[in-house]
């Protein structure tokens, strides 16, 4: 053993040393065997006592960990927030899953906005356990198109309209409406039946990210399109209830606060000036 390490170690016998490396632990026990009491609450206790307090994200299925620790955490300087999908009215915070998409889009970074959109829709639609995952991937492309279309139409003036609830409502409304449109074919004018969804997407320029994402869905046969739309609406269904819609209607905190008490955020505006913002946050 290194002499210097040994001297330091034994001189701090009243301290608990915390392993900062990425660690995964599997705790196995029957219901009510004390997994939370013995292991999780002990970890919360030790981490919150540390000289450099980390941010804590606790998945608390029963609410027992919160009840047992929130007063202690607040006394130690933590800002404690609840995000409860089971009982949304008990939540102390709101979170819009599309917030980072909105932020990147408003900065003008369309590439990053598209990547974040794909990550969200992949989480909503991907199911590698099914025999044919192609339906889910196509449904993801459709949701991508609707999110990006909503961003293009409402930003930067109305960011509050870019939510998954709005995406679901817009898709449901447009996908169920059809109407007749006059098309000039040579010297004749012919009436053809068109989809409101197709007509809506035609409004965007050919280079639009929304239109690019929609192209694969538009090229699909009618029967296949019906299945794609149904799969997309099913993926969005959890966000259509009133309580979840309110819970995900806006973001009440910046997720960059987690783990990073200081943030330097810089970006170039359209007139090429450079804005630099420094934000200092409390622990979460």
TrEMBL record:
UniProt membrane topology term: Multi-pass membrane protein
By its UniProt entry, which SUPFAM superfamilies does this protein fall under? P-loop containing nucleoside triphosphate hydrolases
Cellular compartments per GO CC: plasma membrane
Keywords carried by this UniProt record:
Cell membrane, Membrane, Transmembrane, Transmembrane helix
Q: Where in the cell is it found?
A: Cell membrane
Family of the protein in this entry: Belongs to the VirD4/TraG family.
- Its recorded name reads Type IV secretory pathway, VirD4 components
Q: Which organism is it from?
A: Staphylococcus aureus
């Amino acid at each position: 053993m290194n002499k210097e390490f040994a001297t330091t170690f034994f001189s701090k016998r009243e301290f608990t040393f915390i392993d900062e490396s990425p660690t995964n632990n599997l705790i196995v026990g029957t219901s009510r065997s004390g997994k939370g009491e013995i292991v999780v609450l002990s970890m919360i206790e030790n981490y919150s006592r540390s000289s450099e307090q980390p941010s804590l994200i606790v998945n608390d299925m029963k609410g027992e960990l919160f009840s047992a620790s929130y007063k202690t955490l607040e006394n130690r300087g933590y800002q404690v927030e609840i995000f409860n999908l089971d009982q949304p009215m008990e939540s102390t915070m709101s979170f819009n899953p599309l917030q980072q998409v909105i932020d990147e889009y408003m900065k003008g970074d369309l590439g990053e906005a598209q990547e974040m959109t794909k990550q969200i829709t992949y989480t909503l639609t991907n199911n590698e356990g099914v025999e044919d995952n192609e339906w889910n991937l196509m449904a993801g492309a459709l949701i991508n198109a609707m999110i990006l279309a909503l961003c293009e139409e409402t930003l930067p003036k109305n960011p509050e309209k870019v939510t998954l609830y709005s995406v679901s409502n817009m898709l449901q409304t447009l996908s169920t409406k059809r109407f007749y449109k006059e098309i000039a074919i040579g010297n004749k004018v012919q009436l053809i039946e068109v989809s409101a969804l197709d007509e809506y997407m035609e409004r965007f320029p050919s280079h639009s990210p929304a239109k690019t994402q929609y192209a694969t869905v538009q090229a699909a046969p009618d029967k296949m399109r019906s299945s794609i739309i149904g799969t997309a609406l099913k993926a969005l269904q959890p966000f259509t209830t009133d309580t979840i819609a309110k819970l995900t209607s806006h973001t009440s905190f910046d997720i960059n606060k987690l783990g990073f008490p200081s943030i330097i955020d810089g970006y170039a505006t359209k007139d090429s000036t450079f804005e630099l913002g420094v934000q200092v946050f409390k622990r979460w």
